Amino acid sequence: MTVAAQLQSICKDYHGGGGTVRALRNVSFSVGRGELVAIMGASGSGKSTLLNLLGCLDQPSSGSLWLGGQDVSLLTDNALSAIRGTRIGFIFQSFNLIPQLTVMENIVLPLYYQGGLDRESTERCGELAARVGLGDRLRHRSTELSGGQQQRVAIARSLANDPEFLLADEPTGNLDSATAGEILDLLAELNREGKTIIMVTHEDAVAQLAGRTLRLKDGELESDTRK
Asked: Which DSSP category does 96 fall into?
């Protein structure tokens, strides 16, 4: 199996208040391309820190992190920004849409920032909107949408650059159970089509969607379970 991400002896320290907090301790694992992986653990276990490292939003204090065969552990901020914009799609619990923009404008935003917005890519983003069931809402603003619709916009936006993998942080945390089920069905469909997905969740029902569950405890990898 082709490796999408590989972590080797990752540690992450935060300094402040006269002391050092080690958020991650010697975490090592790899994720194969096409896997759907759930990351679980209690509050403060290191889940968000781990997702930030995988998303190139932060860098480890020690150890190495490889994405698609490239060691990103020591890259510059500009290089990390380029990776975030072209190789990773993000889905957040709070959707993180820009309320002043329409559905279509939110979806094409990653392409705009990367200078890749042209007619062909714009048409593709329209197809993504239709794919998530919002083809008739392109001119609506996010404030005119339900929570489930906003998360669908966020998923379409995460796919705009055809990223290598998706990182989802509690993607159903702000949704009712019925709407959450629809979003999970959509993520499962994307995974069946070959998209690699790494998802942080505290809900066992959500983790059941994954073929593999990583559990963190006090910054350490406590277990790695496959179905």
From this structure: -
Burial class (CB in 10 A: 0-12, 13-18, 19+), 122: middle
129 vs 123: CA distance, rounded Å: 10
Q: Are 183 and 172 a contacting pair, CB within 8 Å? A: yes
Q: Which pLDDT tens digit goes with each residue over 26-51? A: 999 999 999 999 999 999 999 999 99
Instruction: Give the pLDDT confidence of 56-70 residue by residue, as tens digits.
Output: 999 999 999 999 889
Side chain identity at 38, as an amino acid letter? A
Please classify residue 173 by burial: count the beta carbons closer than 10 Å to its beta carbon, then call 0-12 exposed, 13-18 middle and 19+ buried. middle
Helices 103-113 and 147-158: crossing angle, nearest 10°?
30
All domains in the chain, ordered by first residue: 35-60+75-226 (3.40.50.300)
Radius of gyration of the chain from its Cα atoms, rounded to whole angstroms: 17
- Its pTM stands at 0.93
Query: CB-hemisphere CA count at 13 Å for 192?
Result: 7
